[in-house]
UniProtKB/TrEMBL annotation:
Domain DUF6311 stretches: 32-434, 456-565
InterPro entries: DUF6311, DUF6311_C
Species, as recorded: Myxococcus fulvus (strain ATCC BAA-855 / HW-1)
Residue spans crossing the bilayer: 12-41, 118-138, 199-229, 241-263, 269-291, 312-333, 345-366, 394-411
Classification of source organism: Bacteria, Pseudomonadati, Myxococcota, Myxococcia, Myxococcales
Keywords from the UniProt entry: Membrane, Transmembrane, Transmembrane helix
This protein's name: Lipoprotein
Pfam families: DUF6311, DUF6311_C
Key word Transmembrane helix present: yes
Length: 579
């Protein structure tokens, strides 16, 4: 006979079962997100010890930021990295390495394997939270569990999020934060408790987003301020609460930007080319993604756009477009009812439309053709908008307002017997339409993350630095020194494995004056024969003669470069006595 469970154990199991039942909607939608990730990337991407598939595109930059940070002592600003782009250094933020995750894992770095990545698990978590957040919002509006699953699954299949993953922009995949904030606008605030909870969640999301990516943080902050306005209009709290909330939201983001090194570590935050990385007016119906030969829709044809407007990609998908059409019909039918809830949707609509206007940038286009030049309008504030030169990304708040708002309208406005069928039809259309693509699996790339060779290990004994000559250090605007080879990633990885600093790399922002000074100084030192005995130099073949002309150097060829070290310092010149 099976012995009875202790009373305490039975209570714990009962409490856990009740919690799962109460959150069945968000948990089920999170499961849909997990299945979507496995279908796109496969389970291998969740293996934190697999690095080879992360060589492509920007993944390698983000991975190297985390790896080099593991060798750094704690210092201010948090996330400072001295060993990458040495001696200039950089930060986790400018490596797009998701600072909060790296800072959380850093104390346990000694327990983790040398080859360890969190990019795959992070993207999986973003997809799961995408579904869970949409389902949670649906639950707040009175949806059944089945309807919560349908809404969550519909938002999981957002081409805009899936496209960011395919573009290797994992830090920009935290779209669930936008869904939560849009949802907090659309959900009812029944009493002061609901209002306080909404402001608290908004503050938590501001703090979180500030340590993920500045673009996500800017959108989250704008929506949080909009939520403060909505809370003030609802009058469930004294006006001091939303005003204080707005001040705290802004202050927390600015302070964290300084603490994490986004502010105060480079001379300019501008990136140039504002107006090129924008959104087109037809972004929501254009399935053309980053690659010119790839469409995110199986049915709709790509529309023309300008070259860099992939940053403004915002295709909604046929399912969401159907839901939006049906929702508009219902809204027109029930206009008086919708108008009574204007405090919910007017603040967020104004902010989302304002951000969409910014996404169009100073060069407004329709089907890729310029229809309005707003350069004069932006000229007085260009120093403030240039840091967000990829303005096309700011279509996302309006994107999720349309997608989530349409889904919630299909729950609240039609007859209860019709709502599930409309949602199911929208999800079916979305699933059939969205092209999950090709080339997004976690396939191994070139063998850049190979172990250091025996020759390199021998040369590195007792040395501290690995220096690529000429250097290849640049940022997204092309600032810096770009004479060196572009395939520097595998050498950076080898420097990490050997505990050496590395002088090259790609970062989001770079101090151009310091970079030019370093590169020119390195040229002068090598031509003058001033080699550092603590350094292993990696020379391109065209510069090898400069090292061979220096007495006491030894050079060994590896791959397409030459590794040179100073084995003995040259004797100082003998001064001749004056005649």
């Amino acid at each position: 006979m099976t012995p009875a469970l202790p009373e305490r154990t039975r209570r714990m199991l009962g409490s856990a079962a009740a919690s799962v039942a109460a959150n069945a909607g968000p948990l089920g939608a999170a499961g849909v997100g997990l299945l979507a990730f496995l279908a796109i990337y496969g389970p291998a991407a969740l293996d934190p010890t697999r690095l080879g598939w992360l060589i492509r595109d920007d993944f390698s930059q983000h991975l190297l930021g985390w790896l080099f940070f593991r060798n750094e002592p704690w210092r201010f600003p948090l996330g400072a990295i001295d060993g990458y782009l040495h001696p200039l250094g950089t930060t986790l933020g400018y490596m797009d390495a998701i600072p909060w995750v790296a800072l959380l894992l850093r104390p346990f770095s000694g327990l983790l394997p040398a080859d360890f990545q969190y990019i795959g698990p992070w993207m999986c978590a973003c997809l799961m939270l995408q579904g869970a957040s949409a389902a949670w919002v649906a639950r707040r509006t009175g949806a059944t569990v089945a309807q919560q699953w349908l809404v969550g699954a519909l938002l999981v299949l957002s081409p805009t999020l899936l496209a960011r993953m395919s573009m290797a922009h994992e830090a920009l995949c935290a779209h669930w934060t936008l869904i939560l904030l849009v949802g907090l606008h659309l959900a009812p605030q029944r009493d002061a408790r609901d209002a306080k909870q909404a402001l608290g969640i908004a503050l938590a999301l501001c703090v979180f987003a500030a340590g993920v990516h500045p673009v996500i943080a800017a959108m989250v902050l704008a929506l949080a301020l909009s939520l403060c306005a909505r809370t003030a209009l609802e009058r469930k709290l004294p006006w001091r609460w939303p005003v204080l909330g707005a001040v705290v939201h802004v202050g927390s983001v600015l302070v964290l930007f300084y603490v994490l090194g986004y502010l105060g570590t480079v001379r300019t935050l501008g990136a140039g080319s504002f107006g090129g990385f924008s959104a087109d007016l037809l972004a929501f119906v254009n399935p053309l993604g980053y690659q010119r030969d790839f469409s995110w829709s199986r049915f709709l044809s790509p529309l023309p756009r300008q070259g860099a407007q992939y940053e403004g990609f915002g295709y909604l998908g046929l399912g969401v477009l159907f839901a939006l059409w049906a929702a508009l019909v219902l809204v027109v039918r029930d206009a008086p009812l919708v108008a009574r809830h204007w405090r919910r949707w007017v603040p967020v609509a104004l902010v989302a439309l304002g951000l969409f206007f910014f996404a169009l940038s100073s060069r407004v286009t329709l089907r890729g053709e310029l229809i309005a030049d707003l350069t004069r309008l932006y000229a007085p504030v260009m120093r403030w908008v240039e840091p967000f030169r990829s303005s096309g990304r700011f279509v996302w708040p309006l994107y999720y307002l349309l997608a989530l708002g349409a889904a919630l309208a299909l729950i609240r406005l039609p007859k209860p017997t019709v709502a599930p069928s409309l949602l199911a039809l929208a999800l079916a259309l979305q699933a059939f339409d969205v092209n999950l693509g090709r080339g997004h699996q976690a396939k191994e790339g070139p063998a850049w993350n190979t172990q250091p060779s025996d020759a390199l290990r021998e040369l590195a004994v007792g040395r501290e630095h690995l220096v690529l000559y000429p250097p290849q250090m640049h940022d997204g605007s092309g600032r810096g020194c770009r004479a060196g080879p572009m395939d520097f990633h595998r050498w950076a990885y080898r420097a990490y494995r050997l505990g050496l600093t590395f002088n090259s790399g790609y970062v989001a922002r770079l101090d151009d004056a310091r970079a030019q000074s370093y590169c020119l100084g390195l040229d002068d030192d090598i031509r003058a024969g001033r080699l550092d005995p603590r350094t292993v130099y990696l020379s391109i073949p065209q510069r090898l003669h400069e090292f061979r002309a220096i007495r006491g150097t030894r050079c060994v060829q590896e791959e397409r470069l030459w590794m040179c070290v100073l084995e003995q310092a040259p004797a100082p010149p003998v001064e001749r006595a004056a005649p």
